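User: Second chain of the day. Same drill as before.
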Amino acid sequence: MTRVKRGSIANARRKRLLKNTKGFKWGRKSKYRYAKEALLHAWSFQFADRKKKKRTMRRLWTVRVNAAAQENGVSYSKLIAQLKAANIALDRKVLSVLAAKHPEIFSQILATK
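Assistant: Same format as last time:
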C-alpha cells in the first residue's frame, strides 16, 4: 500500500481559520487552538450584536425625536399619539432625520394636528 501524506487538507483548514482571526490580539491571531476558541466567541457576539444594533438605533431615534419635540413644547408620547390620530405614517427613523436636519419641516408636522 502506498503512503498517503495528509498535511495539505489540514493545513488549508488551519490557514482558512487563521485568516478569519486577522486583527485579533496576542496568540489568538496566530495559534490555531486559541484562534479557534476566539472565533467561537467572536462569531456568537457578532450574531448577537447585529440584533442589538437595531435596538440601539431605535433608542437613538427616539431620543432625537423626543429632543426635537421638547423644543416645540410637546412630549414624545403626545407627539406619537398625534401622529397616529392624524394618520401620518412616519417611522421614528424618518422623524429623527427630519428633527436633526430639517427642523422647520419637523415643526410643520407638529403643527398638523
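The chain is about 75% helix and 0% strand.

User: Great, on to the next one.
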